[in-house]
# Entry
Amino acid sequence: PGIPNPSRGSFQSTVYGTTTMQSSRLLPKGAKAMLARTPKHKNQRTFIAPAYNLAKRIMPKISDTERAALQAGTIKFDRDLFVGDPTVKHLTETYKPAVATPEEQKFLDNEVNTLCEMVKTYDVMRDANLSPDTWKYIRQNKFMGLMIKKNFGGMGFTGHGHAKIVEKISGRDSTACVTVMVPNSLGPGELLAHYGTQAQKDFYLPRLANGIDIPCFGLTGPSSGSDAASMRDEGIVVMKDGKLGINISCNKRYITLAPVATVVGLAFKLKDPNGLLTKGKEGITVALLPTQPNQFAPNGIPGLQTGPRHDPFGSPFMNGTVKGDNFFVPIECIIGGEENAGLGWNMLMECLGEGRGISLPAGALAASKMAVLAVGGYARVRKQFKVPIATMQGVQEKLSVIAINTFTMMAAQNMFNSFLANGEKPSCLSAVMKQACTERGRISINEGMDVMGGAAICNGPSNFMAGGYGSVPVSITVEGANVLTRSLIVFGQGLTRSHPHLLNLIAAIEHGDDLAGFNKELTNIIKHAFTNLGRSVTRGLSAQVTFRGSDIGAYHEAHMSRLAANFAYMADCGLTMGGGIKTAEFVSGRYADVLTNLYLGYSVMWFYQNNKEVQGLDKVFDMTMTKIRYDIQEAMFGIFANFPIPGMGFLMQLPTFPRGREFHPPTDKQRAAVSDLITTPNAVRDFLTENTFVSKDPQDRVNMITRAASACFEADKILAACRKEGKRAPTAEEQKKIDAAEAMREEIIQVDSFPKLMNNEHNESWMKPTWGVDAKPTLKVEPAESKKQATSA
# Structure
């Protein structure tokens, strides 16, 4: 989908004013309509001419690579947010909660649990690799073929099944998670499934599914990180020994699995200076390069170098370089064959969205769930000043953040996966998912580290936080660094892609002389702005008289509906900046914060609606929505105060927040109540830790904490009852429970220590002093002024 096939007929693009041959199915419906629209009189001005000329100068220009991103995926709920009229009712009627299929659940309960039991994070960190048995188990049990269809030997799992598998493994060990995640995300398998020739699919997909081949994908290079389209890697179409092919020079880095890969997906800029191509075109191209000879490269790819390894901070997964200078690649190695030459960027954009919205958010959610389970449990076990630290307000402040972050990510993940199950590919929301979830995962881990204190900073088998804490920067950085995803992608591309009228307006401008189309779309945008201005006022008034009552869902939706209208109105006001909105990253980042929190807020309301039977979940829901509303408000006020066009900030605030700030952060009472829910045995704690792996080894620290948390809670209740009843002595049975809990408590608060580290002695003879207390310095130091200074320094 989304890749033109010249054999099926192409057209000269008149919408974007380029000379590129593009398939009409690459264009959004609105842009297709612009193609068909021809004014009765070309020069008829149906709107004031200055507006048309001004729009030509200020509206954002769309590059070919950005156009590919805008055309990728589908638009649905993100459009609702820009329209300003989303509803929970529509979400609940359209999308059912995502659940694992029976086959996926069986895999989770068996193969995934077995893999998790095999992996010990401290051993992986020490050895800088998974064990040989673990590698073999992953490959033989089709962990690298989760998303490959069954007819090619894969598991054929859904996006939700993929997410739950990655989530469970990640909670145990980040290195094992990345090893499984990458082949099932953006990589050769997905690209082949969508765009490969039948011969390529028949050969490679069964080998990938069965772990015979290990794939990697080379996109990032020294000059092209988040700006991947600026890659320097180049391929020249040549004829060598009567064989059509490409001489490629590349320098890729940060390539996961490259050091052990047997097949390399490679993105490069293709050039055809001698006009040798009979199909396809110049441009970014994706090829599949085997490291050993096969039917597509009978002589192999001499000169292709995979590895050496990088050393990723905090997680020693296989990551390294892919390099080569002027090596020959047969034309048959292009994914999809010669006719897909030059279409690599479109292919990447079509495939990126789903993986970006599934894999990395699942890993972030796993870390947050582990914090609920183990940090929440540890806070109940650990005592200071004779009370569990779970009862200390400073600790409760941290724990409550972990709880609402976990609930928020669960909701966002489930709704996104429901979109996928509905056949959608929400590319804009996949960027929201990646940035929002990895940031919240980082916050949860940091809060958990604060609660754990010294137990979290001493490495060893007992430290269940170190692996997740160390790997957080990786998830923040990869597949679009969060700092740029937030400030450039989420709102910058989301506005152009998801606004109901903007892309059509740009199409009319780039058409060159479509004044009638321009007039129509500009009128639509103005009407849209005034519609949401009216909604902002009326919904703002309505929200003031909406009380909590028994239906807190309706209460929160009334306020979110108002904020959605506020956002849509403010987005239209943002268009006054024209193309400047793309580079005004301070402002664009705040718009992105609003859009992100709107998505999270509606996903939380939808998720709560589907799980409100969980006793106590209403407290978590209430605090979560309170925080989301407050964050939206603060981002909006940041826009009001910093909008670069004088007066526009005031014009945006007047109908949206005429009385100033109205929302407040969560109260201390909310924080305490939510914190208690993740440190005591109850349905909410079980709900928020669903699908979290706990080893069966009784000496495993997480296993010990989960058992001890309940035992210590019960023991503390017994002691409290004894004090309340006149300081009576516990019964024999009660004392037995108290003693057992105290023994577990004492063992859990210990940390690892070692006779020596890295096999290095630390107290050898060189550590023995060879001088005495009265020893005088043997070094004579001359006064500086007696020396001739060579420089002013």
